[in-house]
Amino acid sequence: MSESQVLIKAPTIEVQGVSKWFGSVVAVNDVTFQVRPGITGLLGPNGAGKSTILHMIAGKASTSEGEVTVLGQPARNNPDLYRDIGVMSEHEAVYGFYTGREFVEFTARLHGLSPTKGPVDRAISLVGLEDAQHRKLGDYSRGMRQRMRLAAALVHDPQVLVLDEPLNGTDPRQRLDFHDAMTRYAEQGRTVLISSHILEEVETLASTILLMVSGKLAAAGDFRAIREKLDEQAYRVRVVTDSPRRMAAALAGTDDIDSVSIGEDGELTVLSRNVTSLQRAIPRLAKEQNIRLKRVETLDDSLESIFSYVVDR
Amino acid sequence: MRAVFGLSIRQLTGRWRISLILLLAALPVGLAVIINIAASGDATFNRDFTNILLDGLLVAGILPIVTMALATSSFSNELEDKTLGYLTLMPLARWRIVLPKVLASLIICGPLLVISGVVATLFGFDGEVRPAVAVAVSLGAGVLAYAAIFTWLGLVTTRALPIALIYVLLWEGVISTFMSGVDYLSVRGYSLAIMSGLDRPSFPALEERVIELPVAIGGAAAVTVVFLWLGVRRLRRMDVP
Q1: Does A177 have pLDDT greater than 90?
Q2: What is the DSSP string of B62-111?
Q3: CA nearest A300: which of A214, A236, A220, A210?
Q4: Domain boundary at A226, A256, A285, which?
Q5: What are the backbone angles phi and psi of residue A262, rounded to the nearest 5°?
Q6: Is the terminal CB of chain A with fewer CB neighbours within 10 Å at N or C?
C-alpha cells in the first residue's frame, strides 16, 4: 500500500473522551470515535446529543471534557481550519434579504475565494438550483433553502463536510439528488459526516454509522453488521381483533412467532424475529379464521426502540 | 472584513430603524431653531443651550439611544435568528467579525448624529464653525465608544436593549449628573470633556464640570479598545447556537 493510500484512510475527525454538559444536564457523555474519508451517518433519536457533537466537531461549542480534532488540528478556536471544513447546521435560518446566489457568493468571499464566479456556479449547479439562484432566500421553500445552504457549505470545496439533518424538508427527488451529490463527493476521498434521526434516510447513503442514544455512543461501525445484530432482536407487534383468543391460538401455531400474549384489554402482543413473515402471517390467518382485524401496529418501529436494543445488549 | 461589514450595514438599515434614527437626529435641529428664535437674546442663552440641548438632549439622550438601538442588535439579532453560526464557521479571526459590526454602527449613526449636532450648534452659535467642530468630534468619539459597548452587550445577553437602556438612563443620565467623579468612567463625561476641551470659550457652562481633555480622549479610546477586546473574547469563548 502506498503512502498516499495510507494517508487517505487516516481518520479525519477524532473525538476523544468528549463530554458536554449544560449545568446539571449531560448532553454528551464520554464519547470516543473516529471518522474516516467516505460517508458516515451519525444516527440517534431527537435529543441524543447528535447536534451537540456536531457543534463540537465544527468548533462552534467547547467540550466540557475531552478533545476534538479535525484533520489533525483542534476544532475549537481555529478559524483557519474552516478553509477545509464545510458545515451545514440544523437551523434553517438564512439571511432572507440575500438571493440564493448572493448568499453563496457571500460565503465564498468570506472563504477568501477570488474570483468567486467559478466556485459559486459549481456549488449551485451541484445542488441543482441554477434556475432559482436569483430569487431571495426568504422566498424559497424549505427544501430549496436547505439545498442552497448546502451549496454555501460546498463552495470552498472542503475536505470535510459536516451536515446536521441536511434532509429536513426535502422531497424524495431532492433526496436522490442529494444522495448522488454526496456519493460523488465522498468518492473523491473526502469525508462526509451526516446526522439524522431517521434511519432509512442514512442507511442507503452511509456505509459506516455512529449510533448515539442519551448522549452516549451506543454503537459504531459498518451499517450492515449493526443492522444484522439488530435483526437478532425480536420485534413486537400489537394486534387488535374482534376475536383475540382465536387469533392468539392461530398465531401460536405459526413457525416464526416467538410468543403471543393477550392483555387485559384483549389486545395481542406478538413477538417475532422475522418481521416479513409476521407481516404476511397476520392477514392470512385472519382471513382463514374469519377474524376481523381492527388494528395492526409495530411497537418497535421507532429509531428510539431500535437503539434501545443496542444499548440494552 | 468588507463582506461582514456589508452584511452588517444591510442588517442594520431596516426601514423602521432608520426612520427612528432620522426622527431622533432631527429633534435637536428642530429644537435649536425654535430656541434660537425664541430666546437668542437672553443672557442665559449660551448656558441653557449647552446644558439643555447639547448635553441633556444630544449627548446624554439621543447619542446613546440611537447608538444603542443599532449596536445592540448587531449581534443579538444574529443570535436570536441563529445566523451567527454562518460567520463563526468562516476562516475569519474573531476580531474580523466584531470590528466590522462596530464600524457598521459607527458608519450609520456617526454621520447622522454629527450632522444633527453640527447643524443644531450652527443655529445656536450664530454660524460659528469652531463650536460646531468641537460638537462633531465629541459626538464622533461618543458614537465609537458606545458602539463598542453596546455591540459587546449584544453578544453577552439576549436582553441587551433593556439592559443598555437602564445603563444609559441610570449611569450616563442620572448618576453621572449628580456624581462628578463618575465622569471619569462615563462616555457622556468623555464627550462633554472633548467638546469643552476643543473650544473652551464657546462652552463656559461645561468648564466647571468636565474632566481634562487628555483624560477624556484616553478614556474614550480605552473604552472602545476594551469593549472591542471583550467582544472578540466573548465570541471566541461562547457556544454559538
Answers
A1: no
A2: IHHHHHHHHHHHHHHHHHHTT-HHHHHTSS--THHHHHHHHHHHHHHHHH
A3: A236
A4: A226
A5: -110, 125
A6: N
For residue B114, the Cα-to-chain-centroid distance in whole angstroms is 10
Contact B1/A at CB under 8 A: no
Range of the domain at B34: 2-237
Closest CA of chain A from B204, distance in Å: 49
Confidence grade of residue A4 (pLDDT, cut at 50, 70, 90): very low
Is residue B32 classed exposed, middle or buried when 0-12, 13-18 and 19+ CB atoms within 10 A define those classes?
A: buried
Tell me the residue range of the domain where A143 lies.
3-226
User: Which residues lie across from A15 on neighbouring strands?
Assistant: A33, A68
Question: What are the Cα distances from residue A161, in Å, to A31, A143, A168, B220?
Answer: 20, 19, 17, 44
Residue A34: pLDDT band (50, 70, 90) is very high
- Quick one: which H or E segment has residue B161? helix B160-167
CB-nearest to B85 from A60, A81, A110 is: A60
ipTM of the complex: 0.83
- Number of domains into which chain A is organized: 2
The helix-helix angle for B95-124 and B129-156 (nearest 10°) equals 150
* pTM value > 0.90: no
Check whether residue A89 and residue A177 sit in a common domain. yes
User: Cβ atoms within 10 A of the Cβ of B24, count?
Assistant: 20
- Here the CATH number for the domain that contains residue A269 is 3.30.70.100
CA dihedral B49, B55, B56, B62 (to 10 degrees): 110
User: Which of A139, A155, A141, A133 lies closest to A97, judged by CA?
Assistant: A139
Task: Specify the pLDDT at position A230.
Answer: 65
Q: How far is A75 from chain B (nearest CA, A)?
A: 11
Other beta carbons within 10 Å of B227: 21
A23–B contact, CB cutoff 8 A: no
What total number of domains does chain B contain?
1
Place A190 in a pLDDT band, splitting at 50, 70 and 90. Answer: very high
Residue A129 burial by Cβ neighbours in a 10 Å radius (0-12, 13-18, 19+): buried
Nearest to B232 by CA among B123, B124, B135, B156: B156
**Mean pLDDT, chain A, as a whole number?**
85
Q: Coil, helix or strand for A30? A: strand
Cell 456617526: give the residue.
B110
3-state secondary structure at position A253:
coil
Cβ contact (<8 Å) for A60 and B240? yes
Shortest Cα distance from B64 to chain A (angstroms)?
28
A268: helix, coil or strand?
strand
* Contact with chain A for residue B208, Cβ under 8 A: no
